[in-house]
Write a structure and sequence with these properties.
Number of domains of chain A: 2
Strand order of the largest sheet of chain A: 2-1-5-3-4
CATH class of the largest domain in chain B: Alpha Beta
CATH architecture of the largest domain in chain A: Roll
Oligomer: heterodimer
Largest sheet of chain B: 7 strands, mixed
Distance between the termini of chain B: 63 Å
CATH class of the largest domain in chain A: Alpha Beta
CATH architecture of the largest domain in chain B: 2-Layer Sandwich
Low-confidence stretches of chain B: none
Number of strands of chain A: 5
CATH superfamily of the largest domain in chain A: Beta-grasp domain
Mean pLDDT of chain A: 95
Structural class of chain B: alpha+beta
Shape of chain A: elongated
Number of domains of chain B: 3
Radius of gyration of chain B: 27 Å
Number of strands of chain B: 30
Order of helices and strands of chain A: EEHEEEHHHHH
Number of helices of chain A: 6
Strand content of chain A: 15-25%
Radius of gyration of chain A: 16 Å
Mean pLDDT of chain B: 97
Distance between the termini of chain A: 57 Å
CATH superfamily of the largest domain in chain B: Aldehyde oxidase/xanthine dehydrogenase, molybdopterin binding domain
Largest sheet of chain A: 5 strands, mixed
């Protein structure tokens, strides 16, 4: 029943035997030992399992592991490998997170946004983050950090 | 007070880096190896039924199943304030989703498949979903034996009823108060049930090893309270507190939902049942909605009298709480409201009856606000309405009646210092109270609303905190405490308090999550009391460490202790400006004397705190005589919103909350509590709502159907305002703030809606649909 798949996780090749109904989230957490994508709702509502698959964010609870065969996965562990990014630093400086459970998903979603749209408006930031639920912060300090990074990026670009 | 260096300043959260780098470990992230077992629950499909039989043979025969456990295996009662629950339903089930049995298996999918094979025969009983029906004539009794349940001395179940407790408070003479009034306004307000919706579901892993040691890794706000409840519940097995260890890593949101013990009792029982192997139980999002605590629904009947000049003469507040199937924790929510349902007002004549009523819905329990959000909805709606009847400005009316330091509280004790008047002024100013705002277009209307709030921690009078603190070779510090970092910034606040005393910067202080084997006692992280209570313990520990430092320096260098002080991680002397010793040079190895010997030793400190002035003993008929609450935190909030008259859709233009925190240990984190709590409160009034069908089944146990706010739902502008009138017994003057921030949200929206479109909505939530229909009804 099981099928062997190959995943590139944060730059490392992994070959794992998976059942057809196993999700990417289960495989990442239980086989690869990548724990930053969290189990929050298992139906794609909350965004805490967000990972970047070939450059695009996905809900890893809604992706079957076999679908990810041969593809590349980036998680916050990979993002932080050589030290935290400017975006993560901004979240840190602004005390953006409280319990931190949603943080990995929010960080990846915001990273994807800034990669595609370096100068988003406040509305675009809110829209991009709308699929990542946070119950603690009221979102304000998260949105502020993303906007600040976008502004800083703007200054660098202009220079 | 001397100038403060660390307390009162923004500091980066000490849990910030673990959280932004993906390193923060939550319970579900801990690996237990291939021996880990998983459990699935067999749940009641009925709201109220007798269990006739349970046939587990088919499930037990399934390959991979280790054991099937039922109530017969663990016929023990448990509960925080009243032991009215069994671990598994025993003779009857009392809500849809209640645990009847559990399957332990080698993997989760096998456990789930086997759980479906457990055959339970039920005989349905009449179910009660409406608390008013449950207290009516001839209602069936849900807990006929409730009066035999062990409980705290301040609960009073009423024999042969479904009333598990009623808190009665009487002050003055309400009859006379209403006679003296020029205006008396009477009405009923209703508030439905709500869900906490922490993004991390409840999860527990239990291991009962071959040596008889029980360890629980738990997503909890309450490690020591959990250990205590496990020890009490499993005492028949010969387990004592020292044999039980509760480890609580980072927790992904609590809001009260992870206080006390809910599903964790199953984790402990399943571990005992599968001795020698760890067992994991993780709630699904659905279970998270229907089988943890829910915020209780309430029907509140309110009568308020006032004189022409605006002086309040009497408040009568009778609250009927739908407390659910078990009230082991929820009854204390009801109790807290029964003491404080006047709100922050000076009122000479008070009558409060707060009824805790059993129903066949999931158990009620603590939720950020602890009953205060619920009663403030009616109370603060009412205050605006009565001001209007008197022709007095709603802010002016509140200022005239605002409680002051030394005023007599409803139960006889005195009000603590507070900056209530200042919070009112500043919130009103922030929303430009009294000035008109132009709607953004035709068909739109803008309204403003205000609401006050107060809240005290509700806890046993002897709820205590303790702290250990130790230095390392380089002069860095570890603080061990057992409050939980549930996002509020507790760890950082504790580090800042220790930093202030020891002059060691917060970034050189480590605070870790608790382990009951190693960390000293903390009752629970609830009630917005840990910054205050545990903060006092940490300050005490730091002072003890400082005293030891001074003693060592005195013995080694002969400088009088009272001449010594700390500055910049050094010991200095007021007698000799040139004298200084770096802490890092002696806090472990001591100070060397001329003869080569040393003085000193590893420096550490311990601290403890208990509010020794509180008592829950009072006259049950009036609540007079005790001192049940440590202090109230007060505040005022204002909102500006725009409504589309056609659709009823509300857009929040501005929301401001001024709260008197005594002293903001870290203002940035206080602001985080304000913005987060306000949005959580706004969601309860604008759209959240638990819906049950006629058989008691929850219809919306997921985030598709139970909407919580997204980033798109934030108000255009949020204005956090910090007021600081010190709390004399708080660390550096601090008092609690976390829960309070959602309390005024609902009534200020109700008041602003009326201001905008002239309709008064008295039942939550105030959805767009409700507003649109009310506008239509008012115009026909």
């Amino acid at each position: 029943m099981k099928r062997e798949i190959t995943l590139n996780v944060n730059g490392e090749e992994w070959t794992v035997a998976v059942a057809p109904n196993e999700t990417l989230l289960e495989v990442l957490r239980d086989r690869v030992g990548i724990k930053s994508p969290k189990i929050g709702c298992e139906r794609g509502d909350c965004g805490s399992c967000t990972v970047i698959l070939d450059g695009k964010t996905v809900r890893s609870c809604l992706v079957l592991a076999v679908e990810a065969d041969g593809h590349g996965v980036l998680t916050v562990e990979g993002l932080s490998r050589d030290g935290i990014t400017g975006l993560q630093q901004a979240f840190l400086d602004k005390n953006s997170f409280q319990c931190g459970f949603c943080a990995p998903g929010v960080i990846l979603t915001a990273s994807e946004l800034l990669a595609k749209n370096p100068h988003p408006s406040e509305h675009e930031v809110k829209e991009a983050l709308a699929g990542n639920l946070c119950r603690c912060t009221g979102y304000t300090p998260i949105i502020d950090a993303v906007l600040e990074v976008a502004e800083r990026g703007g200054v660098e670009d202009d220079g | 007070m001397a100038e403060l260096k660390y307390v009162g300043s923004k500091a980066t959260r000490i849990d910030g880096l673990p959280k932004v780098s993906g390193s923060a470990t939550f319970v579900d992230d801990i690996d237990f190896g291939p021996g880990l077992l998983h459990a699935a629950i067999v749940e009641s499909p009925h709201a109220h039924a007798r269990i006739v039989s349970i046939d587990k043979s088919e499930a037990e025969a399934m390959p991979g199943v280790v054991r099937v456990v039922t109530g017969d295996d663990f016929p023990y009662r448990f509960g925080l304030y009243m032991k009215d629950r069994h671990i598994f339903a025993m003779d009857r089930v009392r809500f849809v989703g209640e645990q009847v049995a559990a399957v332990i298996a080698r993997d989760l999918k096998t456990a789930q498949r086997a759980a479906a094979l457990v055959r339970v025969k039920y005989e349905e009983l009449p179910a009660l979903f409406d608390p008013m029906e449950a207290v009516g004539e001839g209602a069936c009794l849900l807990h006929p034996d409730m009066c035999d349940c062990e409980r705290v001395p301040w609960f009073f179940p009423e024999e042969d009823t479904n009333i598990a407790h009623c808190r009665r408070t009487r002050k003055g003479d309400v009859g006379r108060g209403f006679e003296e009034a020029d205006v008396v306004l009477e009405d009923t307000y209703t508030v439905p049930r709500y869900a906490h919706c922490a993004i991390e579901p409840h999860v527990v892993v239990g291991l009962y090893d071959q040596s008889g040691r029980l360890t629980l890794w738990s997503a909890s706000q309450s490690p020591h309270t959990q250990r205590n409840l496990f020890a009490e519940t499993f005492a028949p097995l010969g387990l004592s507190h020292k044999d039980i260890r509760v480890v609580t890593p980072y927790v992904g949101g609590g809001f009260g939902g992870k206080a006390g013990v809910t599903m964790e009792i199953l984790g402990a029982a399943l571990a005992v049942a599968a001795k020698g192997r760890p067992v994991k139980l993780r709630w699904t999002r659905e279970q998270e909605f229907y089988n943890t605590y829910q915020r209780q629904a309430v029907t509140a009947k309110l009568k308020v009298g006032a004189k022409k000049d605006g002086t309040l003469t009497a408040i009568e507040h009778v609250l009927y709480w739908d407390a659910g199937a078990y009230v082991e924790y929820g009854a204390n929510v009801v109790n807290a409201v029964g003491l404080s349902a006047t709100g922050p007002y000076r009122v000479p004549n008070v009558k409060i009856d707060s009824y805790c009523i059993y129903t066949n819905l999931p158990p009620g329990g603590p939720y950020r606000g602890f009953g205060y959000s619920e009663f403030h909805f009616g109370l603060e709606s009412h205050m605006t309405r009565i001001a209007h009847e008197l022709g007095i400005d709603a802010v002016e009316f509140r200022k005239r009646n605002a409680i002051r330091e030394g005023d007599t509280l409803p139960y006889g004790a005195k009000m603590n210092p507070s900056g209530l008047a200042e919070t009112i002024d500043r919130a009103a100013e922030a929303i430009e109270w009294g000035s008109e705002v132009e709607p953004s277009g035709p068909g739109k209307a803008v309204g403003k609303g205000m609401a006050l709030m107060w809240k005290a921690p509700a806890m046993p009078p002897n709820a205590a905190s303790a702290a250990f603190l130790k230095f390392s070779e380089d002069g860095s510090v570890n603080v061990t405490v057992s409050g939980m970092e549930i996002g509020q910034g507790y760890m950082t606040a504790m580090a800042q308090i220790a930093a202030e005393v020891l002059t060691v910067p917060p970034e050189r202080i480590r605070v870790e999550t608790p382990d009951t084997d190693r960390n000293p006692y903390e009752w629970q992280t609830v009630g917005s009391h840990v910054t205050w209570g545990c903060g006092n313990a940490v300050r005490d520990a730091a002072i003890e460490a400082r005293d030891r430092i001074f003693d060592v320096v005195n013995r080694a260098r002969g400088v009088p202790v009272d001449a010594l002080y700390l500055e910049g991680e050094k010991v200095k002397s007021r007698l000799d400006p040139g004298f200084e010793l770096r802490l890092r040079d002696f806090v472990i190895y001591g100070i060397q004397m001329e003869d080569g010997t040393f003085r000193g030793g590893p420096i550490m400190g311990s601290g403890m705190f208990m509010p020794e002035f509180t008592s829950a003993l009072s006259d049950p008929a009036t609540s007079q005589g005790g001192h049940p609450n440590v202090h109230y935190t007060v505040g005022a909030a204002g909102i500006v919103l725009e409504i589309d008259r056609e659709t009823g859709k509300v857009e929040i233009l501005k929301a401001a909350l001024a709260v008197d925190v005594g002293k903001a240990i870290n203002p940035d984190l206080v602001e985080g509590q304000i913005t987060g709590g306000l949005l959580q409160g706004l969601a309860t009034v604008l759209y959240e709502d638990m819906r049950f069908d006629e058989s008691g089944r929850l219809l919306n146990p997921n985030f598709t159907d139970y909407k919580i706010p997204t980033a798109m739902d934030t108000p255009r502008e949020m204005i956090p305002i910090i007021v600081e009138v010190p709390q004399p017994d708080g660390p550096f003057g601090a008092r609690g703030v976390g829960e309070h921030t959602m309390i005024p949200a609902a009534p200020m929206v109700a008041n602003a809606v009326e201001d905008a479109v002239g309709v008064r909505i008295k039942s939550m939530p105030i959805t767009a649909e409700k507003i649109a229909l009310a506008i239509r009804d008012a115009s026909t």
